[in-house]
Design brief:
Distance between the termini: 53 Å
Structural class: alpha/beta
Radius of gyration: 21 Å
Bound molecules: (2S)-2-hydroxybutanedioic acid
Largest sheet: 7 strands, mixed
Number of strands: 13
Strand content: 5-15%
Number of helices: 15
Strand order of the largest sheet: 2-10-9-8-7-3-4
Shape: globular
Order of helices and strands: HEHHEHEHEEEHEHEHEEHHHHEHEEHH
Length: 390
């Protein structure tokens, strides 16, 4: 039977991790997969996480099952970070998920249980894993125009026009902040218009909030989610702690759903979880819970998060100051920007200059140091890429 299977290409982004590791050049630059790196090129475990892990090691008595919803105290504490002052009491439910990807999959399964005809609208371009996740859940995926990479401009009017063609009950996937791959985010006025459109036309937003705190700040990056939660009766938020707590492989996230009958929704979420991963991995969530329960560790974490964000934004500023053709990078936020480079250019940068980036031309700014910006810009210049970008 397995002879019926055809070979699948490896995930392009994840393949880069290995290619980079195997490259012996000391000057190589890793701008590939979306992982934060410090000024020394390391992806450290946060001090707050280390401190929480010490407590965990000392105090954890059992690893017995918790249930498909995971650690509900973790979920409650993360809920406050996501929704802030916006009151969602009595109309929200949430579960812990294996990272943001698990949250997106559970969101897709839930939406399809409620409305099998729901189509999923993703931005063009979007994170390459969005479409496969929704397709794997059996959904039809549509695209709305979002950003023109060649001119580095948002296509807001075209986005609204496309979404006006979505059917009632369709799911609109929105990057809450730090758009992946472009780093180009809607203004508050534009967010308000998208949220009004969802309200008017009965569209269901699914916010992908994978980088909260790494753009402009924890509260600033939650503007759209909080505004939508104040206006709409129904919405979903797929949240991730993998980046803002640097937990990556621990796969720590949550899914929040707003609706009239949160208990009924929660029971369906539990079923979605039970039939996919049964129960989420515990370790990262307990560490996050311990941090958020302690004023001292919470302060340590927010300081570390601020440091990560400020470092990324300092790299962005330095690139913009160094090379006028790349000035747009200074205006964008989050880990990524998407350069208008052909796959051939991307390959040339990798082979001739040891600069690793996604085939699409997406770069992870957190892979650079302020001190390596010059090297990066020189590589782009020598490879003849700057002419393309100007
Ligand atoms: C990325 O876009 O690089 C990250 O979200 C990592 C991933 O899982 O693709």
């Amino acid at each position: 039977m397995f002879e019926n299977l055809s070979q699948q290409p490896p995930d392009g982004l994840l393949a880069l991790i290995k290619l980079f590791r195997d490259d012996p050049r000391e000057t190589k630059l890793d701008l590939g997969v979306g992982v934060y790196k410090d000024e020394h090129g390391n992806t450290p475990i946060l001090r707050a996480i280390k401190a929480a892990e010490e407590i965990l090691l000392r105090e954890q008595k059992t690893k017995s099952y918790l249930g498909p919803e995971g650690d509900l105290r973790f979920v409650e504490l993360v809920r406050e970070i996501v929704f802030g002052e916006t009151d969602v009491t009595g109309r929200v439910c949430g579960i812990q998920t294996p990272g943001g990807t698990g949250a997106l999959r559970a969101a897709a399964d839930l939406a399809r249980r409620a409305n099998p005809a729901a189509r999923f609208w993703v931005s063009a371009p979007t994170w390459p894993n969005h479409r496969p996740i929704f397709v794997a859940a059996g959904a039809e995926v549509m695209e709305y125009p979002y950003f023109d990479i060649a001119s580095q401009t948002l296509l807001f009017d075209r986005m609204l026009a496309a979404l006006a063609g979505a059917a009632r009950g369709d799911v609109i996937v929105l990057h809450g902040s730090c758009h992946n791959p472009t780093g180009a985010n809607l203004s508050r006025t534009e967010w308000d218009a998208v949220i009004s459109l969802c309200a008017e036309r009965g569209l269901l937003p699914l916010f992908d909030l994978a980088y909260q705190g790494l753009g402009d700040g924890l509260d600033e990056d939650a503007y759209a989610v909080r505004k939508a939660a104040g206006v709409l009766g129904e919405m979903m938020v797929a949240q991730s702690c993998d980046k803002n707590f640097a937990l990556y492989r621990e796969r720590t996230g949550s899914l929040f759903v707003l609706g009239e009958k949160p208990d009924v929704i929660a029971s369906n979420l539990a079923l979605c979880a039970r039939t996919t991963w049964s129960m989420p991995p515990d370790h990262g969530a307990v560490a996050v819970r311990l941090i958020l329960e302690s004023a001292e560790l919470r302060k340590l974490w927010t300081d570390e998060l601020n440091e990560m964000r400020e470092r990324i934004n300092a790299v962005r500023r330095r690139i913009a100051e160094t090379e006028p053709a790349l000035a747009f990078i200074g205006q964008q936020r989050g880990l990524f920007s998407n350069l208008a480079l052909s796959p051939e250019m991307v390959l040339r940068l990798r082979t001739d200059h040891g600069v690793y980036m996604a085939k699409s031309g997406r770069i992870n700014l957190a892979g650079l140091r302020v001190g390596s910006v010059g090297q990066f810009v020189d590589a782009l210049r020598t490879a003849g890429c700057l002419k393309e970008l100007a």
